[in-house]
Amino acid sequence: MIKIALVGDVLITRQLPEKGYNGLQEIIDLLGEHEVTFANLETTVHRCEGYPSAFPGGTWAMTDPKCLNTIKRFGFNILNTANNHSMDYSHNGLLATHRYLIENQLPFVGTGENLADATAPAFIECSRGRVAVIGATSSFHDSDAAGNQRMDMKGRPGVNPLRHKSIYEVTEENYQSLQKIAVQIGINDYHNQAIKEGYLLPKDNFNFANFEFKKGEHNILHTIPLEKDLERITKSIDEAKKQSDCVIVSIHSHQFSNGNKANPPEFIRSFAKACIDAGASIIVGHGPHILRGIEVYNKGVIFYGLGNFIFQNETVTHLPADFYEKYFLKFDDGVGSAMDKRSQNGTKGLNIDEDVWNSIIVSIEVDSKSMVVKLFPIELGYDLPRYIKGLPKINKNNCIINRIQELSAAFGTEVKNNDGIGVVSISL
User: Residue 313 maps to which CATH number?
Assistant: First the structure.
C-alpha cells in the first residue's frame, strides 16, 4: 500500500513562526503519515532576480527562498510549479525558482528549461512502490509556454501548457448579426490581412476578433483540449506508467463553466478522463481557490479543485511599478496601500469569500485492489487580519464535508461523512 497526501494551492509569502501556531502539529502529523505529499506552489521563489512580466497571473507572486523551509517543515516532497504565476518574473524568475527548489531538495514538475523538461514526470520512491507525478496548467499567458528544442536551436523555459479551443455556438440569427457587425466595424480586418500574408492560419469557423463562432441550434460555449498538448501529456503519462505503480497528474486551471467557479469547464473534464484512459490513477486540480467536486472514472479519481492550503496573497513583500500604476497609486506608496486599494479596504476580492478559506487535505491509500480516499477539512483563518490569515488548521466542520458531498454528487460520486472526515472508496 502507498499513502499519498494531496493539497491545493500554496501561495506562501511569510515564514512560519519559529514556535509554530495552534494546529500546526496536527497538520504536520497528518501529512507525515504519507510517503507522497503533493502541493501546488503558486508563487515564484527568489529575491527579485527576475524582471517583472508584462503579463502576470494577477498579483506578481514572489516569495523569499527562506519560505521553502516552511514547505519542508510541513513535509511536502513534490510540487507542481506550472500555474498562472510561474512566469510572473519572466524567465529569470522561473530559473531562479528552479535553482532554489533544487538547492532545497524539493522536487517539482510542470515547468522546465524547455518543453520536454516541463512535460517530464518526477518519480518518488516509496517503501512499497513508485509514484510518478506530471504537472501542467491551462491558465497562463501565451508567452509563458515552454518551447521545444531543435538540433539547431535551444528550447524556451516555461510551463507545460494545456491549451484549449473555445468555440461559441450561436443561432442562425445571432451568427448573421455578428458577421454583419464584423464587416461594418472592421474588427476582423487585421486578422484577415494576417491570414493573407501567412502570419496567421485560417480557422474552420467564423472569427469575431479573437473569438470563434459557429452556427447551431443553441447559444452555448464548447471548449476542447488542444490536440497536440493532450497528445504530448498523455504520452508522458504512458511512459510514466511503464515505470511506476501510480501516476498523478496535476492540472492548474482557473477556467469554469455556466458562470460558476465551482463548475470545471468541458475541456478540463475531457482532459482529466483522457489522462486516466492513458494510465493515470489520480488527477489533482487546483487554481480557482475554492473546492470543486470529485469524480470517480474508470478506476481513477479526479479532484477538480482542492482549494487552498496556504494562502497569503496580500502579504507579498514587493510589487512592480505596473501594479501601483494600475491602481493610480503614488510612487512612494507601499504594498499595504496597494492591497487596500485593490480590495477597496477589504470589501471585495478573495478575502471576503469564505469558500476561499475552507478546504481539504486529501489522504489516499492505494494498493492493487482498491483506493481509499479520506478528506480532512481545513480552515485558513477567514476572520483573521490579512497579515496573519492563510495558514491551515484541521477543522472537522460538517459544512465543508457537506459542500464536498454536494459538489461531488453532480458527478455521481458518493462522499460518506465519517465523524467529520469525508470518505470515498474505489475498487480497482
Answer: 3.60.21
The strand ranges marked E within 89-199 are 108-109, 111-112, 122-126, 129-137, 158-159, 164-170
| Domain extent for 302 | 2-151+155-159+247-318+349-427
User: What SS3 state is found at 150?
Assistant: strand
Contacts of 186 (CB under 8 A, 6+ apart): none
Residues 290, 210 share a domain: no
Contact between residue 35 and residue 130 where contact means Cβ atoms under 8 Å apart = no
pLDDT tens for 112-129 read 999 999 999 999 999 999
Q: What is the pLDDT of residue 287?
A: 96
Residue 238 lies in a domain: no
Q: Which of 214, 234, 238 is closest to 225 using CA atoms?
A: 234
Q: Give the separation between CA 267 and CA 165, rounded to whole angstroms.
A: 8
- Is residue 35 in a domain? yes
One domain, residues 302 and 196: no
Which residue type is seen at 187?
A: I
Q: What is the pLDDT of residue 369?
A: 83
**Residue segments in the chain with a per-residue pLDDT below the cut of 50:** none
Q: Which amino acid is at 242?
A: K
